[in-house]
Backbone:
């Protein structure tokens, strides 16, 4: 995202790529010689391993070193000399969970910029607090990677990022910045805005949209403005190039399909609007929340949209959208790729319990596990590093006391980048 | 002996008189597995029910040829759950005034409430419905089954526990405690005064100043529930919101000498050692896991009240999420979630199961009738599709008093929630 960096130089990028390259190099080196002695090599032995990328292995072995997975195999897999061997008999190992919609580490005061309804150029990484207790709670519950997005009170909210749930600085935690641009439909962006009734508008709240129509228009106008901006850029007026505009640059990225749009839409009408806007402007969208996806599964499939379904345990209507227990079954039947996330519902349970409810309501177990590991990793564009247990990927994994979909089970050990976390 | 003979004859006569009635009321449940709760688990067992009561449980019981047979040979049968304390199913469980011991939930229970529908769907067969925790002396509860069109249909026992609560709500804890003491003291003063007047009345009667057939005034009905409580004729369901109030709750109970079942908020587990000394079972509010953040270190820690009590072997009864309107929400409305939450936090499986069966039955004084599958107990059974602590297990059939009260295959709301009916109208 060259253009973005030009528009807003980001200190985080400086640290990101170099350490990443270093780690990939290490992984390659280790991948070439798996039996090589590793000082920090760890071997987890005896558990049922669900690599997600392949079939489960009974009594399997997972070996990792240097923060990367070295090997996965059955009980016969040779262990590297000097490796710390941990007996996990009776346990179940899955990849670390990936939560594709969170506000982890963002204080509620910082999630929503109220200066404008369209703020595409805001970066969530600027407000993530690595020491926030929410990260600790998430990783203890088996979530090792999370998408963090700006709040849902703006029509166009800003840029989200994917982070690990452990790290001293945001740069340490960052897996991928600028993963998507948050757009919100429905009544949330206008909630609290007041229509003009008395005299002159005195506050910002008077100017902002206060209907669904107004919200959609704010989004549409933003993209029209971006298109006009692009035209000005390519055909400068009177020989003067237009001044660079950070927000417009972000929207252009979306229009050029270089940046995913994450549209929060719950009710059927909002999901359809999300698809209509995406078709109108030609951007790629992932539908978030998607409570009434059960009504529009076929349309989502036809539009080749992907879904980040939030909080399947939630059972009460939000913003007019009626949850149904077969929502995810309907998406699976229509072959719509989906992730399960906790989303913006304050009553959302730990991610694994959210999936457990989907399994209770009939979702296939393999699809359920993929929906909180590999599928969200793919949607977030970080599947080369996380989401499954494969040699070369980050050593993010969870050792469960039993079947992860058994509500009596709990994580007994959680590893992020090969380090056990508390 | 001479006196007893006729009664034996009478019994024999009754037995010959109603064979057809008996035959009609015989139900046999053939179960793949029976979780009796109190007597272990039986594989491939038969439960024989007669007139709504369990007659026999065992592996080699021959089913009477004319009994109604319920085939659950691929399923698990366990007693229906007993909820020892809930304020669900009433449109407004809390009176605005602080002291209203004369109220009764009999006047507030809404048989059509979705709370009861949901309870039955999840295998609950008995609930002690009692006023909410926002009052001090809050009124009488009643024990009901979540099945029936009227409160009378649903009633198992009227006039059950009396709600006493130490929830500070608005206002200071001290003021609330003082108010509660004052309310009880007023009743004691009334009783003392009444006793004095009764003695005078008796004297006057002796002197002929009052008519021979005149009777002394009855106890003021507004004060009667508290009078019963002080006389040990009623049990207080004593709500204690946090560990801070436990000492006071014990003091109040001992000072006035009433029977009390403690109903504990999730933050009470910090005083678990104190409760352990009681040796009595307690009731836990539905929220079992509580998170605390240390203001200095920002360290978050989670307490599970059930686990803390289990460590000290204090028996406890579990609650389920309440709702006054509409379906209750959140996972705590599911008994499987509540029990699994206990196990997840280190409670023994059997203890978790007992917390929704035999322990609440004991708390309600119904352990002779409910809470396990044993000969002589009421045939309140649930037939479920698997391990009752698993999320994927569903309640298939509920029998209350030996009769089918719920069947999943005929549950319109489930069909609706699974999108099998287009609209709610169709579902109905």
Residues:
């Amino acid at each position: 995202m060259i253009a973005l960096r030009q528009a807003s130089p980001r200190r985080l990028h400086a640290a990101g790529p170099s350490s990443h390259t270093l780690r990939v190099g290490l992984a390659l080196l280790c991948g070439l010689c798996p039996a090589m002695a590793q000082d920090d090599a760890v071997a987890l032995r005896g558990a049922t391993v669900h690599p997600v990328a392949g079939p489960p292995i009974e009594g399997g072995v997972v070996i990792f070193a240097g923060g990367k997975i070295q090997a996965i195999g059955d009980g016969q897999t040779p262990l590297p000399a000097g490796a710390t061997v941990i007996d996990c008999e009776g346990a179940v190992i899955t990849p670390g969970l990936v939560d594709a919609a969170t506000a982890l580490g963002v204080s509620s005061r910082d999630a929503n910029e109220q200066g404008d309804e369209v703020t595409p150029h805001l970066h969530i990484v600027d407000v993530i607090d690595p020491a926030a207790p929410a990260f600790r709670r998430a990783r203890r519950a088996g979530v090792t990677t999370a998408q963090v997005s700006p709040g849902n009170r703006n029509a166009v909210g800003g840029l989200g990022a994917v982070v690990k749930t452990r790290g001293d600085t945001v740069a340490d935690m960052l897996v991928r910045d600028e993963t998507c641009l948050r757009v919100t439909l429905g009544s949330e962006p206008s909630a609290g805005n007041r229509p003009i009734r008395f005299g002159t508008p005195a506050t910002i709240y008077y100017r902002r949209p206060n209907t669904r129509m107004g919200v959609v228009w704010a989004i549409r106008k933003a993209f029209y403005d971006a298109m006009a901006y692009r035209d000005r850029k390519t055909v400068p007026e009177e020989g003067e190039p237009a001044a660079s505009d950070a927000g417009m640059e972000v929207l252009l990225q979306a229009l050029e399909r270089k940046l995913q749009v994450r549209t929060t839409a719950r009710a059927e009408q909002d999901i359809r609007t999300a698809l209509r806007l995406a078709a109108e402007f030609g951007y790629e969208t992932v539908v978030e929340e998607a409570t009434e996806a059960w009504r529009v599964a076929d349309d989502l499939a036809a539009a080749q949209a992907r879904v980040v379904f939030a909080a399947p345990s939630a059972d009460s209507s939000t913003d007019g959208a009626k949850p149904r227990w077969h929502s995810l079954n309907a998406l699976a039947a229509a072959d719509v790729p989906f992730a399960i996330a906790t989303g913006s519902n304050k009553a959302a349970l730990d991610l694994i319990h959210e999936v457990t409810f989907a399994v209770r309501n009939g979702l296939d177990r393999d699809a359920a596990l993929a929906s909180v590991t590999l599928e969200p990793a793919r949607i977030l564009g970080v599947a080369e590093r996380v989401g499954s247990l494969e040699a070369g990927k980050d050593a993010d994994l969870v050792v469960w006391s039993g079947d992860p979909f058994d509500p009596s089970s709990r994580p007994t050990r959680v590893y992020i980048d090969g380090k056990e976390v508390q | 002996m001479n006196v007893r003979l006729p009664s034996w004859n009478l019994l024999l006569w009754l037995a010959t008189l109603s064979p057809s009635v008996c035959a009609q009321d015989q139900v046999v449940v053939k179960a793949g597995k029976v979780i009796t709760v109190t007597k272990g688990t039986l594989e491939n067992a038969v439960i024989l029910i007669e007139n709504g009561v369990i007659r026999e449980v065992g592996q080699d019981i021959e089913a009477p040829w004319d009994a109604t047979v319920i085939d659950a040979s691929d399923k698990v049968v366990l007693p229906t759950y007993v909820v020892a304390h809930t304020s669900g199913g009433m449109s407004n469980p809390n009176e605005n005034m602080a002291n209203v011991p004369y109220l009764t939930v009999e006047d507030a229970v809404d048989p059509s409430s979705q709370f009861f529908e949901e309870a039955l769907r999840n295998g609950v067969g008995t609930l002690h419905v009692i006023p909410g925790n926002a009052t001090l002396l809050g009124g009488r509860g009643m024990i009901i089954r979540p099945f029936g069109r009227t409160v009378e249909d649903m009633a198992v026992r009227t006039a059950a526990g009396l709600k006493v609560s130490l929830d500070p709500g608005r206002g200071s804890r001290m003021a609330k405690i003082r108010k509660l003491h004052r309310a009880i003291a007023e009743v004691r003063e009334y009783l003392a005064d009444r006793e004095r007047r009764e003695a005078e009345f008796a004297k006057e009667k002796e002197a002929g100043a009052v008519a021979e057939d005149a009777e002394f005034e009855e106890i003021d009905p507004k004060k009667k529930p508290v009078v019963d409580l002080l006389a040990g004729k009623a049990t207080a369901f004593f709500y204690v919101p946090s560990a801070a109030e436990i000492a006071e709750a014990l003091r109040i109970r001992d000072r006035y000498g009433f029977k009390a079942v403690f109903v504990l908020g999730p933050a009470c587990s910090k005083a678990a050692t104190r409760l352990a000394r009681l040796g009595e079972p307690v009731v836990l509010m539905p929220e079992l896991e509580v998170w605390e953040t240390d203001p200095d270190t920002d360290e978050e820690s989670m307490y599970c009240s059930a686990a803390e009590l289990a460590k000290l072997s204090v028996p406890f009864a579990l609650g389920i999420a309440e709702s006054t309107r509409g379906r209750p929400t959140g996972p705590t409305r599911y008994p499987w979630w509540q029990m699994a939450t206990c196990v997840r936090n280190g409670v023994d499986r059997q203890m978790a199961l007992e917390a929704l069966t035999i322990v609440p039955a004991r708390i309600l004084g119904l352990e002779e009738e409910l809470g396990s599958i044993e000969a002589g107990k009421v045939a309140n059974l649930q037939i479920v599709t698997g391990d009752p602590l698993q999320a994927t297990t569903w309640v298939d059939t509920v029998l209350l008093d030996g009769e089918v009260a719920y069947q999943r295959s005929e549950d319109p709301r489930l069909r609706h929630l699974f999108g099998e009916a287009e609209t709610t109208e169709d579902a109905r």
In short: The longest strand of chain A covers residues 57-65. Residues 162 and 367 of chain A are 22 Å apart (CA to CA). The first helix of chain A runs from residue 2 to 7. The radius of gyration of chain A is 22 Å.
